[in-house]
Write a structure and sequence with these properties.
Layout lengths: L6 E2 L2 E2 L1 E4 L10 H28 L6 H30 L3 E3 H34 L4 H4 L2 H14 L2 H11 L8 E2 L6 H5 L7 H34 L4 H31 L9 H26 L1 H10 L1
Parallel strand pairs: 3-5
Antiparallel strand pairs: 1-2, 3-4
Length: 312
């Protein structure tokens, strides 16, 4: 495929989504089928959470408002990220217009930021529930949770928009191959045909802020939760308190740790991952939580299990 056949003069007007570099064409249909199955599973599982919330009024509680918001965000991310790469592998239709690529990049980072904020709210909810159980019903009402979630959905636009405005200013006049499964900041920045050290630093700073600020609060919350749990004299009580948090802690580790690795190794000399390793890590932390979240919550949360048992 030509790197220049999608240019007008010397300005890139279209990019081509490469996906996994080096993947043999013999496996294109298999990769498309795998990604399609993941997408269908994510939409099905998270739609189930949304439907349950709508029809079961007993679930209209702060914790389930968080789950609802996370499910909507996960479906939004996968709907933005996966259809184009599936089309690329199934129909070799990987071309994407410059501003469509920019929009995809904006939404990819928007939903990533939103998920980070939702997980911070989730940590706050668990912190109040475990450390201040008697005051929890007063401190964390449905109204309070709706305000927090509404602020998250709104403010999550700020940092991706700042970064996208930097990208618009970059000149793109050379290769048009996006070495990724979707358009994101790192992949697009690498294609700029100018010195973009400043833009890279801005993108890196924004990414670290979006990750470190919520992650620091999450660590603070769970450290305090652990201390409070260890003070419980009853062993059964300790296990019950921990069981409410272990699932969330696992998802948080899966979500944050690989992200730190990708962003850090992309900006520290002599530590860069190769394209395939980076894409594999990004797809792992991007798709695994949306895929497993609804099934884990359906199994672990008592009210949801009771709902299914009632209908069974």
């Amino acid at each position: 495929m030509s790197q220049n056949n999608q240019t007008t003069g010397s300005v890139v007007t279209e990019f081509f989504i490469v996906g996994f570099p080096g993947l043999s064409p013999n496996y294109y249909n298999l990769m498309a089928a795998i990604l399609l199955c993941i997408y269908v599973a994510v939409v099905t599982g998270n739609s189930l959470i949304v439907i349950l919330f709508v029809i079961e009024h007993n679930l209209h509680k702060p914790m389930y408002l968080i789950m609802l918001s996370l499910s909507l965000s996960d479906m939004g991310f996968c709907t933005v990220a996966l259809p184009k790469v599936i089309s690329r592998y199934w129909f070799n239709d990987g071309y994407i217009a410059f501003y469509v690529c920019l929009l995809q990049r904006q939404l990819i980072h928007y939903f990533g930021t939103l998920n980070s904020l939702i997980m911070m709210i989730m940590a706050l909810d668990r912190y109040l529930a475990v450390c201040y159980p008697l005051r929890y019903p007063v401190l964390m009402t449905n109204r309070t949770m709706k305000i927090l979630i509404g602020l998250s959905w709104t403010t999550a636009f700020i940092t991706p928009t700042i970064s996208s405005m930097q990208t618009v200013k970059m000149p793109f006049c050379g290769p048009n191959l996006i070495l990724h499964c979707f358009c994101d900041a790192l992949s697009m920045n690498q294609l700029a045909c100018a010195d973009i050290t400043k833009q890279n630093l801005i993108s890196y700073g924004i990414a670290m802020f979006v990750l470190l600020a919520p992650f620091s609060f999450i660590i603070f919350s769970y450290v305090n939760i652990l201390v409070s749990v260890l003070r419980i004299a009853n062993a059964q009580g300790r296990l019950k308190a921990l069981s409410t948090c272990t699932t969330q802690m696992t998802i948080i580790v899966i979500y944050y740790v690989p992200r730190f690795v990708v962003y850090t190794t992309s900006n520290i000399p002599n530590t860069k991952l190769n394209s395939s390793q980076k894409i594999a890590l990004v797809m792992f932390y991007s798709l695994l939580p949306p895929l497993v979240n609804p099934f884990i919550y359906c199994i672990r949360i008592k009210e949801i299990r009771q709902f299914f048992l009632k209908w069974y």
